[in-house]
Design goal:
With about 475 residues, the chain is an alpha/beta fold. It has a domain of about 250 residues: Type I PLP-dependent aspartate aminotransferase-like (Major domain) (Aspartate Aminotransferase, domain 2, 3-Layer(aba) Sandwich). About 40% of the residues lie in helices and about 15% in strands. The protein has 14 helices and 13 strands. The chain has a 7-stranded mixed beta sheet, with helices on both faces. Strands 10-11-13-12 form a 4-stranded antiparallel beta sheet, covered by helices on one side. A two-stranded antiparallel ribbon has the order 4-5. Helix 3 packs antiparallel against helix 12 and helix 5 packs across helix 7. It binds pyridoxal-5'-phosphate. The site of pyridoxal-5'-phosphate (PLP) has 15 residues, from helix 5. Pyridoxal-5'-phosphate (PLP) binds next to helix 5.
């Protein structure tokens, strides 16, 4: 392909993308294919000869599109959103064209400097005080891993990377059972071990970690010869939106000099609206905070904002400088690859620049406020309907419910029937052994009418058991 062909195909693919989005409501939200359907359409062997782009594009429509679950569908109410607002997609197109590696300031000064400034814009937008410094990680899982590695190294006097964990004090990290499994995986990968991830009991409607129980768990562990390393709290847990009482939990952590990390992967975006910030009261005391602009805010995946009170501890944990990565004459500049596990890094800050400038914070706030209001209104309607029991009230735009008087099997069957129907997409969760339907509003282009369709479909299929 030469660059003239590229320009022609680039224009065609942009047109395709716009048409896809304009007509996306006509498609079933969840792919309706069976396992193996798509693979069976792909040749077993790679082609020896070059093929025409026309043929490749036709096959894209024929083979790929039927097997896509449409995350940008406005009636995607499952999981959490992965919004790709149009300006952020355009920025990604530019980033793809430039295809720079942004591991060091020198390998892409604009990317580094824009990352610093964009993370400071985000810091202000979500109401964190000056003094927090941000870096973009590929995912919240990576940010949490970086935080857990930092708490491990700090607790071991920076010996773990060099000496390994054998013969070291046994570490302990504390969280509730409401945190995302990315915390478990970070604990595994860091070599701390799942049995040393202590689950502190929760209390209240927000399922917050009980600070007294946290205090006594830490105290008992110290008495038993463990070395506590850190506390991980959540704002907006994945299952029901659980929110820890960050101020109370972090006060306990500080009393024991423990490193603290806040996982607000989904809910962090809502903190651009001051009225929701009570959900993470005390967050300014944290050492490390992650939220994903690639979820609710609209920055195309991947873009995870990781804020640090003292980046030096993270750099001390992760930086490694072989001669070929030294930038002689530019010492003392930020090299973001020293702040994360991977060396190579994409230019992710550009899409934040495009996104925030295109909508303004007020435009982004309006979307989030609408989503919360529509979700609350739907929840109120279902509460008043005899077919439904609300299990957990909305936390921001997430709530859970069950078909009244039905067993777990019926709830799963209901979820499957909703998703086979195709007009909406939801998933289930397990709350203390009870399966509940999990519903969140958050897709960037969702409208009140889309939530009205959801209301209609939820009631229609609840009244029409298969
Ligand atoms: N934390 C929470 C609360 C989440 O809901 C998720 C994913 O949905 C994650 C962490 C993991 O995010 P990522 O896919 O960016 O690793």
């Amino acid at each position: 392909m030469n660059w003239d062909d590229f320009a022609q195909w680039g224009a065609r693919i942009s047109d395709w993308a716009a048409e896809y989005h304009k007509t996306i409501r006509d498609r079933p939200v969840r792919a309706q294919t069976q396992p193996g359907d798509i693979a069976s359409l792909l040749p077993d062997m790679p082609p020896e000869s070059a093929e025409e782009m026309e043929a490749i594009m036709a096959d894209f429509e024929r083979v790929v599109m039927p097997g896509i679950t449409h995350w940008q569908h406005p009636r995607f109410f499952a999981y959490f959103p992965a919004n790709a607002a149009p300006p952020s997609m355009l920025a990604e197109m530019l980033v793809n064209a430039i295809a720079a590696q942004c591991m060091l300031w020198q390998t892409s000064p604009a990317a580094t400097e824009m990352e610093t400034v964009m993370l400071d814009w985000l810091r202000q937008a979500i109401g964190l005080p000056a003094g927090f410094t941000g870096v973009i990680q590929d995912s919240a899982s990576s940010a949490t891993l970086a935080a857990v590695l930092t708490m491990r190294e700090r607790a071991l006097g920076w010996q773990g990377n060099q000496k390994g964990l054998s013969g070291q004090p046994r570490l302990r990290v504390y969280c509730s059972a409401e945190v995302h499994t990315s915390i478990d995986r970070a604990i595994w990968v860091a070599g701390i071990g799942e049995e040393n991830l202590v689950r502190v009991p929760t209390q209240g409607p927000l399922r917050s970690m009980d600070p007294e129980a946290l205090k006594s768990a830490i105290g008992q562990d110290i008495d038993s010869g463990y070395r506590p390393a850190g506390v991980i709290v959540c704002t907006g847990g994945t299952s029901t939106g659980a929110c820890d009482d960050i101020a109370a939990a972090l006060e306990v952590a500080r009393a024991f000099d423990l490193y603290t990390h806040v996982d607000a992967a989904w809910a962090g975006a809502a903190m651009i609206c001051p009225e929701f910030r009570h959900l993470w009261r005390g967050v300014e005391q944290a050492d490390s905070i992650v939220f994903n602009p690639h979820k609710w805010l609209g920055a195309q995946f991947d873009c995870s904002a990781h804020f640090l009170k003292d980046p030096a501890t993270l750099v001390q944990t992760l930086a490694i400088q072989p001669e070929f990565l030294k930038t002689r004459g530019h010492d003392g500049l930020v090299n973001y690859s020293e702040w994360s596990v991977p060396l190579g890094r994409r230019f992710r800050a550009l899409k934040l620049w495009f996104l925030i400038r295109s909508y303004g914070l007020e435009g982004l706030r309006t979307r989030i406020r609408n989503h919360v209001a529509w979700s609350e209104s739907l929840c109120a309607d279902l509460r008043g309907h005899p077919r439904f029991d609300i299990v957990t009230d909305p936390v921001l735009s997430l709530f859970t419910f069950r078909l009244a008087g039905e067993d777990n099997e019926a709830q799963i069957d209901y979820v499957n029937r909703l998703n086979d129907d195709g007009r909406i997409y939801v998933t289930q969760t397990n709350i203390g052994g009870d399966i509940a339907v999990r519903f969140q509003v958050g897709q960037f282009d969702a409208t009140q009418e889309d939530v009205d369709v959801a209301r209609q479909v939820l009631i229609e299929l609840a009244n029409d058991p298969a």
